[in-house]
Structure formats: C-alpha cells, structure tokens
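Sequence, structure tokens reproduced for reference:
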Amino acid sequence: MNKLNIIEKKFITILTHLMTVFMILSILTIFLQLLTRFVFKTSIFWSQELLMLFFVYSILFGAVVLMYKQEHLQVDLFEKLPKKLEKALDYFVKSVITFVLLIIFYYSILQVNLSISAGQVMTSMPIGRWIMYIPMPI
C-alpha cells in the first residue's frame, strides 16, 4: 500500500469519527432542548444554532465518507450495457461529478473568505459564521 492510500484511509477514518461525534452532539443538543423546554419551561436560545452547526458538519463529513466508499445514493438508468459503453458512461459521470465538485469547492472558498472579511458572526453565539461554511471546502 503506498503512502497516498494510507493518508487517504486515515483521512476517511478521521472524518468518520468526526461525523459520529457531531451526530452524537446533535442528539445530545436535541435532548437538552427537550429537557429545558418541557421540564424547566425555558429554552436555550443558542441551542438551535449549535444544532445547525453539528448537523451541517455531520452531513458534509458523512457525504465525503459515503462518496469514498461508493455507498451514496445511486440510480441505475442503464442496467445492461456493453462493457465499453458502461466504462465510457462511468468516466463521463465521474468527470461531471468532479467538475461540479470543483465549482462547489471554488465558491465555498469564496464564501468562507467573504464571511471572514465581512466579520459575520452567528446570531446567538459569539463565533464567526465562517465556522458554518468551512466544512464545504474540506
């Protein structure tokens, strides 16, 4: 196994663990919201934004892991094609996906930079809004 494959697998393992942690934190935040709202008859004003951050991180990291493992949602339009045509179609689809991901990467970097330079902060928490956008380029 070459060094690139080892680094790739470690990166995916780290993302898998991060995704799991953020999902657990999402569940705990929801539980905390329910507890404070129905037991203590009050709400935590910052919990909704925190939940949004945890959810965004878990979804985006999970999407990377699923794409790597090729376990994402797929639709087979053509089931029985000649091998050469199937290979060409697969190459075309992967090229289109790569092109779209490069566009998303470029504009997500612009969004992060714009958010940092504008000094945007979250509504109810004193952290920069760029924290919410940074998983996109990752």
Remarks:
- The helical segments are 3-38, 47-69, 83-118, 130-133.
- The two ends are 24 Å apart (CA to CA).
- The longest helix spans residues 3-38.
